[in-house]
Amino acid sequence: MSSDAGPVGVVLDKICAHNTDVLGCIVARDGAVYQNLPEMYELVDTADVVEQAENMLELTQGLETEHAPFDQVFLEYDHHAVYARRLDQGVLLLLNKPMERAQFKKMQLGVNLFLKPLNRALTGATASPKVPDEPQEGGAIRRTTRKRWF
Amino acid sequence: MGAVFGLRSVRVGKIVETREDARQVGRHLTSAETVELARIQKDPSVIGYAVLDLDGNQIEASGVWASQIVPVFANVFDLADRMGGEFGEEDGCPVLFMESPDFEVAGLLLTSARAVIIKRKPKRVAEGLRSVE
């Protein structure tokens, strides 16, 4: 598995390394598609997949008028699971091994850890973002400090 | 189907079902699915739902966004099936979830229909409760 070079590719590698059920990632912004998929998926039309994910999120924007729009989709298939997440600019797609809702929640937490670096990499695209090897501030579960949950 | 959402919150929408709705649903759902759907409707955390046939036509819709759920999710299901095809999935997408900061939606493939269930997140309910003076 190898990803495109550059800061975005670095973050995608980190996401895959941190989440064991993730088979590969795709990130798209303004028509540019970065991917980190195994060779067996080389025939996948990633631009088409991204467009479908964006359309799904776009369609549900019509439902909400006063609240924040839907920004995450999780699709369960027989042999895969796909997680799509809207970014500050663009969309992230993760291709996963089949998983159920509970595993998805765990993976969702694992992805959250890398959202900031990924957004920085996509928006900046010049300076190399600081990507944590391990979960760091903001995303880590704090076991010693109780926080209000709303 | 009942295990789709494991959280509980406060009912904020009223779900109304007429006899004609029930007949329509009964034509497309098995008796077990009908019973489960009725049970879900009584769940206070569910604020809306819809049942679609496999062609995306509305069988029943009620609660929040009742007029919008079916056309929106008929297309979402189509897109999900198409995306699965890209990854070699032949049988479409049996289950999908969507999340916003305030809501969760589950879309399920049943025997000969699709169901969409909408739920308000407990965090949002709690914020509403806090703002009550």
Question: What are the salient characteristics of this protein?
Answer:
heterodimer, A: 150 residues, alpha+beta, B: 133 residues, 4 helices, 5 strands, 40% helix, globular, disordered N terminus
Molecular structure report:
Chain A is an alpha+beta fold. Chain A has four helices and five strands. Chain A has helices at 7-18, 46-61, 101-112, 115-124, and strands spanning 22-29, 32-36, 72-76, 81-86, 91-96. In chain A, strands 2-1-5-4-3 form a five-stranded antiparallel beta sheet, with helices on both faces. Chain A is globular, with a radius of gyration of 15 Å. The termini of chain A are far apart. Residues 136-146 of chain A have low confidence and may be disordered. Chain B has a five-stranded antiparallel beta sheet, sandwiched between helices. The N and C termini of chain B lie far apart (37 Å). The model of chain B is unreliable at 1-16 (pLDDT under 50). Chains A and B meet through α2 and β3 of A and α3, β3 and α4 of B. β3 (72-76) of chain A pairs antiparallel with β3 of chain B, so a sheet runs across the interface.
| Strand order within the widest beta sheet of chain A | 2-1-5-4-3
Computed structural class of chain A: alpha+beta
Assign an overall shape of chain A.
globular
Strand content of chain A: 15-25%
Largest interface, by Cβ-Cβ below 8 angstroms: which chains and how many residues each? A-B, 34 and 34 residues
- Residue share in helix of chain B: 25-40%
- Coarse shape of chain B: globular
The pLDDT mean of chain B sits at 80
Number of H/I helices of chain B:
4
* Helix count from the secondary structure assignment of chain A: 4
Radius of gyration of chain B: 15 Å
Give the N-to-C terminal Cα separation of chain A: 39 Å
Count of β-strands of chain B? 5
* String of helices and strands of chain B: HHEEHEEEH
How many strands of chain A?
5
